[in-house]
Amino acid sequence: MFDFVKRNLNEFKTFAMRGNVIDMAVGIIIGAAFGKIVDSLVKDIIMPPLGWLMGKVDFANMYWTIGGNNHYPSLEAAQAAGAVTINYGLFINALISFVLVAFSVFLLIKCINKLRADKKEECEATTKTCPRCFSVIDIKATKCPCCTADI
Questions:
Q1: What is the residue extent of each domain of the chain?
Q2: What end-to-end distance do the CA atoms of the chain give, in Å?
Q3: How many CB atoms lie within 10 A of CB 47?
Q4: CB of 70 closer than 8 Å to CB of 83
Q5: What are the φ/ψ torsions at residue 68 (nearest 5 degrees)?
Q6: With 0-12 CB in 10 A as exposed, 13-18 as middle and 19+ as buried, what is 106?
Q7: Per-residue pLDDT tens for 117-147?
Q8: For the chain: N or C, fewer Cβ within 10 A?
Q9: Sequence-ordered list of residues with C-beta below 8 angstroms from that of 21, at least 6 positions apart, any chain
């Protein structure tokens, strides 16, 4: 029994300490923090001017009450009264947050792909080895300048 636990614990430790798992964990933590920043950007920076332009509308207080004709002054008041609400204003906020996060990830991936392409171009070989005399020659050469062998 003890060997089974020890063997599985060692296997888990090997799995957890692989580079991919640690990179993924860091990505998830940074992604969560980034999500909070974007959420604040939408709620505190983007939505207030957008609501003002649309006639002083507060998207966070946009809702429909289901069942009953009661009208409440705010979403909090409706929820405190126990009314069933459809919070479409909060959904609009979440939708805008999602679009901003998705666009940011798109830009990040685009930059990473550009850097990878640049690095790939740098790594392309410009020389080759002569199969006869093993001297280093230009990759476009058809004849070795050292031994005059056809390549």
A1: 2-138
A2: 65
A3: 20
A4: yes
A5: 105, 155
A6: exposed
A7: 776 665 567 888 898 888 888 888 888 888 8
A8: N
A9: 15
Q: Is 85 exposed, middle or buried (0-12, 13-18, 19+ CB in 10 A)?
A: middle
User: In the prediction, which pLDDT does 18 show?
Assistant: 72
Beta bridge partners of 138: 127
* pLDDT on residue 107: 87
- Give the CATH architecture of domain 2-138: Orthogonal Bundle (1.10)
* Cα gap 56→85, rounded to integer Å: 21
47 token code pair: 């939505």
Q: Which H, E and C letters describe 11-73, residue by residue?
A: HHHHHHCCHHHHHHHHHHHHHHHHHHHHHHHHHHHHHHHHHHHCCCCCHHHCCEEECCCCCCC
Percent over 70 (pLDDT), the chain: 92
Q: Two tokens at 79?
A: 């929820």
3-class SS of residue 131: coil
Look at the chain and count its residues: 151
Say what the pLDDT of residue 70 is.
74
